[in-house]
Amino acid sequence: MKLVVGLGNPGKEYERTRHNIGFLVVDELARRRSVVLKKMFWFPALQAKCSFGEHEVRLVKPTTFMNRSGKAVWGAMKKWRVPADSTVVIYDDVDVTFGGIRVRAKGSGGSHNGMKSILEWLQTKGFPRVRVGIGPKPADADMIEFVLGDFAEQEHLKLEKVVEHAADAVESIFSVGTERTMNEFNQLQIG
């Protein structure tokens, strides 16, 4: 069993914000597999069971707010006995230019509150992640307002392609591994 977790905030007001791009990628993966995410009773998340090739996978969207994402990820890992290195986390990254993807096998959470929560709950940095670029943040913009803001008009034109590209990267991790996926996707930019 593997987990694919997309980070975001619950609620209509956050649905299409920059901070919810992880949710959008999980929604795309669910659409590709014709599955519907449903509410969990064991931990705060929506989930759907599907497969990526020979891998049985649970798609997960925490229903906590971003800064409490770790509780849902930890709950999913415990429920299905999934080790950290079999859990892929997808989240927005203000330090990556919009249209860029950065895949990593492990690492810190940087300034991302959702990742800080996950690292605190899991007590390990050893899990793959797909960072989806939402930057750069304008120098005069407030960080919270920027990440919780809607995509700019020119970004909306590329958003679908960016989400598809990030979903392709997640699928690639399962088909060819994290290392090859890093080599293939980290240099590409959706222009």
Describe the structure.
The protein has 191 residues and is of the alpha/beta class. It has a single domain (2-185), classed as Peptidyl-tRNA hydrolase (Rossmann fold, 3-Layer(aba) Sandwich). 37% of the residues lie in helices and 24% in strands. The protein contains 6 helices and 7 strands; from the N terminus they run βαβββαββαβααα. It has helices spanning 21-32, 69-80, 113-122, 143-147, 153-176, 178-185; strands spanning 2-6, 38-39, 45-52, 55-62, 87-97, 101-104, 129-135. The protein has a 7-stranded mixed sheet, with helices on both faces. Strand 3 and strand 4 form a beta hairpin. Helix 1 (21-32) packs across helix 5, helix 2 (69-80) packs across helix 3 and helix 5 (153-176) runs antiparallel to helix 6 (178-185). The longest helix is centred in the last third of the chain and has 24 residues, at 153-176. The N and C termini lie far apart (35 Å). The relative contact order is 0.19.
